[in-house]
Design brief:
The complex is a heterodimer of chains A (478) and B (425). In chain A, 52% of the residues lie in helices and 14% in strands. Chain A is of the alpha/beta class and 478 residues long. A ten-stranded mixed beta sheet of chain A has the order 3-4-5-2-1-6-9-8-10-7. Chain B contains 23 helices and no strands. The longest helix of chain B has 43 residues. The N and C termini of chain B lie far apart (88 Å). The mean pLDDT of chain B is 92. Classes of the chains: A alpha/beta (478), B mainly alpha (425). Chains A and B meet through α1, α2, β3, α13 and α14 of A and α1, α6, α8, α10 and α20 of B.
């Protein structure tokens, strides 16, 4: 077939643009991997000489308030709260915020922890939707459950902040199961420099049924579910290979909602979590960066290397697309809100490195991906595709994208040695398939998120929880 | 040449690049697996050998002669890895000690001393391992090297030195840690953690800090002395700093007195209820409550409650919160001391008193007994009616949810009663 006027030119331009983009991405990834390996080695040595037993027995650890918002988490909320209540940290409280759930979330908590309603007057520092009732547990004095009208996760977190008694906040998800030493590991690092470290993130894994890790923590396994394993690897790559590098370069860009430690005064000073964004975590991280860098105040936001939790990842493609579309939306919303920081030397590494990365490799990525797919289709339709070259290029890309995954697995294993060898092999074997099977889903989600951003949609788009065999919720609380 | 055609010139390279990338990926993956298998094997062997080190039969031998098997295992490791074993806190202490002896035999004490004093950033982990080794070997230079390391600006070096000094556990090590506490580096809370768990009693070394010119030194001294309630005269010295010019010192002194000397703690805490700094007031309240809850004499407990109750109207939230929790801790016999706060012109005090009465179980008990053979007195009914008024609709709703449906009429009576009782609008 003869190509009409302009098609060949279009293909050439698309080829050059996507080629340049990939080259830039490759250089960036390589740079980040080198920095991450350095940081990982450093954190590993730091953990080896850390005397956790002494910290654990200390009267001088800093107490922590753990805030766990939950919306329609009837299946997960009890295992999640139980994993928080069994933390080995010396002093903490757990505030579970039921954000107007329409399912049995509150009923599950009532049943598991023998809750009784109480009127409790609290310090209303941050505006939130009205609190319906406060519950205290007859079984567990460290637990407070706040039932409020639905206002989104940011609103629920702010409500938890209003009830918080301690100086540090661990903001977590109500669908995530935590390792018993999650808070200890985070606070041990923070306590070395509490004046400067204002926030800390940490790696969490993705599992299709994270509650099954409640009693078996210490030996993480892969999911045995393809989509779940791809998500787990994605998270491991993001945290181990990239976020550690950001942490080292002082441009940590996201203290994730799944597990984030914040100093309470910092959260209050910047006005609490914003419900104006599709997701509160990235925006809060940027707000803190913006404020502290503008005012030239010393601070650090760090990423811990250890895997502290397992969160629920969708089992179905539709659920994954909804979740990732929301993530794409919040990236774009944050870039839009903080565009003034891009390439502004006042904002140091965040403005010069972090935000440009977000813009190019996260915000605009779906557009470059779309361009390459359109060019591919056009080339096929007009018979202009050189198949051998294309397949070579595709194969090259498959293995090239598998390398960061393998490095992430290598760094994690070198530090923790917690996966069985067969799980390591499974994770690494999935690396090259990522481009073929997983990336197209993310591309679609990215495009959908971009479209939603352009339409100014803000909804949470919560994915439907994975189906499980019926399990008495109270069993987890015993 | 048209620049858009430039990339096409590289296309033949794709085949080669594909092969190189695939080989790189395979090599990396194989490395991960082989590295892990070797690690597992080595770890198993180390742990097996470490068990031999605990055998009482070899305890009298010099460390390095206690396990030939361990010696063979270590000889297969790089010097760097053996050095790492010296400082790892996640392996048995006997293994740390053996590794230290092995490294010493391998490189000599002089080299370890040089490593321990190195200020090169690149060699800082070797420095840390050398510090652990010097301590394990009970080297005569250990204290001096650890003192220098503790003053190092690098937090990893200084924190590791603090860990080692606690392990050394002699009085000179304690003095070095105390000097660091005075200096304020590394993080005083970290240094205090090690002093608080120090294996020897060191109150005589801490005591002089109570009169140190630096407030933070006095504060930590007051706090660390909590471990020594039996030492004569110490409580009186701590009580003196409860009136210190620094609020942090006053707070630490209150907490220590609260834990060690009841007779001194109660009057001191009562005095500090009027402290100008809110966190000292809230600490005083909590100290009083802790002692009050242990009182067997109701009158004494009620007296303490009557001191605390006015703090429900404090201007600081943390003080009001401490007062609410403390009054509940004192128990239900103190309700008469809380009730007057329902009449306070301050809304916080009225709300707080209502919440305390609710948490004391007074609301539930009144709802349960009203109109029955054990019906509460008019005084109680009036107080609870007022409490429900001050607690608002949520408190009444919560009470309804907690009570049996057949008792809702009694609750209605109480709610009606409060309209007759009146009070603040």
């Amino acid at each position: 077939m003869n190509a009409p006027f302009g098609v060949v030119e279009f293909l050439h331009v698309a080829y050059v643009i996507t080629g340049a983009y990939l080259l830039l991405l490759g250089i960036y990834a390589l740079g980040m991997l080198v920095v991450a390996m350095r940081e990982s080695r450093y954190r590993q040595r730091q953990e080896e000489v850390e005397d956790y037993d002494t910290v654990l027995a200390s009267r001088y650890t800093i107490p922590v308030t753990i805030i766990a918002p939950a919306f329609n988490e009837a299946d997960m909320v009890v295992p999640a709260i139980q994993s928080l209540l069994t933390q080995t940290y010396p002093e903490f409280e757990v505030i579970a915020v039921d954000d107007g759930s329409t399912d049995d979330t509150l009923a599950a908590l009532k049943q598991a922890y023998d809750l009784e309603p109480r009127q409790m007057f609290f310090k209303n520092v941050l505006e939130t939707k009205p609190v319906r009732m406060v519950y205290r547990s007859r079984k567990e004095p460290r637990l407070t459950v706040v039932a409020k009208e639905n206002g989104g996760k940011a609103d629920a977190l702010n409500c938890g902040v209003n009830f918080a008694r301690y100086r540090y906040l661990a903001c977590v998800d109500g669908d995530t199961v935590f390792a018993p030493d999650a808070i200890l590991r985070g606070m041990a690092l923070i306590s070395k420099d509490p004046g400067t470290i204002v926030g800390a993130a940490s790696l969490f894994g993705v599992s299709v049924e994270p509650e099954k890790t409640v009693t078996t923590w210490g030996a993480p396994t892969t999911n045995g579910h393809l989509l779940g394993d791809f998500q787990h690897l994605d998270m491991m790559r993001a945290f181990v290979a990239y976020r550690q590098a950001w942490s080292q370069l002082d441009c940590m860009m996201c203290v994730s909602g799944g597990f984030g430690l914040w100093r309470r005064d910092v959260i209050l000073e910047v006005g609490g979590f914003s419900p104006e964004f599709s997701c509160e975590d990235i925006e809060m991280t940027f707000r803190v960066h913006e404020r502290y860098l503008r005012e030239k105040r010393p601070y650090r936001i760090i990423s811990l290397p250890s895997m502290v939790a397992n969160t629920e990842g969708p089992k179905r493609i539709g659920g994954l697309v909804s979740q990732r579309a929301r993530w794409q939306r919040v990236v774009l919303e944050t870039i839009w809100e903080y565009a003034r920081m891009i390439f502004n030397p006042r904002y140091k590494a965040v403005g010069l490195l972090g935000l440009p990365y977000y813009l190019l490799f996260e915000g605009l990525a779906p557009l470059f991906q779309l361009l390459s797919v359109v060019a591919l289709v056009v080339a096929i339709v007009f018979g202009l595709l050189g198949w051998p070259i294309y397949l070579a290029l595709f194969g090259l890309m498959m293995f090239a994208t598998a390398i960061p995954t393998t490095v992430a697995v290598l760094l994690h294993d070198a530090a923790y040695r917690d996966y069985k060898v067969r799980d390591l092999i499974r994770m690494m074997a999935l690396g090259p398939l990522d481009l073929l099977l997983y990336r197209p889903i993310l591309m679609w989600a990215g495009l959908r998120g971009t479209w939603q951003f352009l339409r100014k949609e803000k909804g949470w788009d919560k994915f439907e929880r994975n189906q499980r065999e019926a399990q008495p919720v109270a069993a987890y609380a015993s | 040449m048209d620049i858009t055609y430039l990339p096409f010139r590289f296309e033949p390279l794709f085949y080669g690049a594909l092969i190189i990338t695939a080989i790189l990926w395979i090599a990396l993956s194989v490395y991960v697996v082989v590295n892990r298998m070797l690690y597992d094997r080595r770890q198993r062997r180390l742990m097996d050998d470490a068990r031999d080190l605990g055998d009482p039969a070899v305890a009298s031998l010099p460390t390095i002669e206690r396990s030939p098997a361990m010696r063979r295992t270590l000889s297969n490791l790089s010097r760097q890895n053996v050095y790492r074993l010296v400082s790892r806190t996640d392996v048995p202490a006997a293994l740390n000690e053996f590794s230290a002896a092995y490294v010493t035999e391998y490189v000599g004490t002089d080299q370890i001393s040089r490593d321990a004093s190195s200020d090169s950033q690149r060699r800082k982990w070797r420095r840390i391992s050398a510090l652990f080794a010097l301590a394990d070997l009970k080297s005569p230079d250990a204290h001096e090297q650890l003192e220098n390391a503790l003053a190092d600006p690098d937090v990893d070096v200084s924190n590791a030195a603090a860990v080692v000094l606690r392990r050394v556990g002699d009085r000179r090590a304690a003095s070095i840690l105390i000097a660091a506490l005075r200096r304020g580096t590394p993080a005083p809370s970290r240094v205090a953690t090690h002093l608080d768990q120090f294996p020897l009693p060191i109150h005589d070394l801490i005591r002089p800090l109570l009169v140190d010119p630096q407030p933070h030194a006095r504060q930590w001294a007051a706090s660390l002395l909590m471990r020594y309630p039996e030492v004569p005269g110490l409580a009186a010295e701590v009580a003196e700093v409860a009136d210190d010019g620094s609020p942090a010192v006053r707070k630490a002194a209150l907490l220590t007195l609260g834990a060690m000397a009841r007779a001194v703690a109660i009057p001191t805490a009562e005095r500090r209820l009027a402290d100008p700094v809110s966190y000292v007031r809230s600490t005083a309240i909590r100290v009083l409550a802790r002692h009050g809850a242990l009182e067997t004499d109701d009158a004494r407990r009620q007296a303490i409650a009557s001191w605390i109750a006015p703090s429900l109207a404090d201007s600081a939230w943390e003080v009001r919160s401490a007062a609410k929790e403390s009054l509940v801790e004192l128990g239900s016999t103190t309700w008469r001391n809380v009730a007057p706060q329902l009449e306070s012109p301050d809304e916080f005090a009225r709300n707080g008193a209502a919440e305390v009465l609710q948490n004391l179980g007074m609301v539930d008990a009144t709802v349960k007994d009203l109109g029955t053979s054990t019906s509460p007195s008019t005084e109680v009914v009036d107080v609870i009616s007022r409490a429900l008024r001050e607690g608002g609709a949520t408190m009444a709703g919560a009470a309804a949810l907690r009570s049996a449906p057949e008792r809702h009429a009694a609750l209605e009576d109480l709610l009606t009663n409060h309209q007759e009782v009146g009070g603040h609008p």
